Fold this sequence. Notes:
Radius of gyration: 19 Å
Shape: globular
Number of helices: 14
Amino acid sequence: xxxxxxxSGCPVNRCRLLGINCSAGGPGGGDFPSxxxxxxxxxxxPSTRTLARRIQRLPxxxxxxxxxxxxxxxxxxxxxDADPVVLLHCFDSSCLEWRGVYPVLExxxxxxxxxxxxxxxFSDLERRPPCNVAAKRCHLYQLWKSHIHRPMTLVGPSLxxxxxxxxxxxYPEAVDKxxxxxxxxxxxxxxxxKQLPKPIAYAMAxxxxxxxxxxxSKLLVFEGISVSRMLEYTNVGRLHxxxxxxxxxxxxFMLSGGYNVTSQIRKVKQRTxxxxxxxxxxxxxxxxxxxxxxxxxxxxxEIPDCGHMxxxxxxxxxxxLIAEFASQTKTTSxxxxxxxxSCNKQTV
Length: 348
């Protein structure tokens, strides 16, 4: 099966070989979870539509809310004996970031979770719980404790790397390995934004979800992106912003001060894989090299000809790196057969 996957041509053929329905439905089709914004029907990308249909909400009991938070994620269809791979996402994003990687990891036999960080994604936040760093950490731990409850390989891209470091240093028993992709971990939280008056903070949040700003950010994040792909990525990337509590959650996080994990980096005990993109315009590669020096047990891999989000631009290559690192023991390395031609292909 792996050999057939490697030798097949386009991504759609690979999906068929792996039993993944990458062509189900078109714009306006049904079968999406009812809690997703109705604009999900306008998304054209088959892999996004397929993953969106798999999003569920699980009850997570936390001590800062009176009732369970119905928390959005993509769950594995089958539980495995091996430690699971848990995928976080970037700042103000959702599990849909993993539309290219998730189905391939799952098809390769990994128990894979794609989890929405509290305050972002598609969880039910109607009661407006706090979405500061402590709340995000507690929520992720309770989700892990209730539904996963085994040491995991935790994957965090961009600000998701700060989420992962913060979590791993507070709950080391929950994390076996870390994979940090273009890690944004040296920012001093939200900086001066935490001092903004609330009305101005809400205006900033409104700007953050605007189509022009989101389109501009795609030009920075993705290397050589076309206009059609930029618009599609924008529609996917701001889908969670259309939920009625998004602005309140965003302002709450902004005014709380955000992530500042610089002092925690040297406390990370887990083996760590750092992935750095050659043409990242958001995180300077020198910061990734600094992180490698400061982490006690880290290795680094560079992705050529790629921007800030290689798990979207080059999902097969990122899948290969995740799969190989997650499969490693302290003495054994397991190669994953995904050839360089497929690694270099871009998919929407």
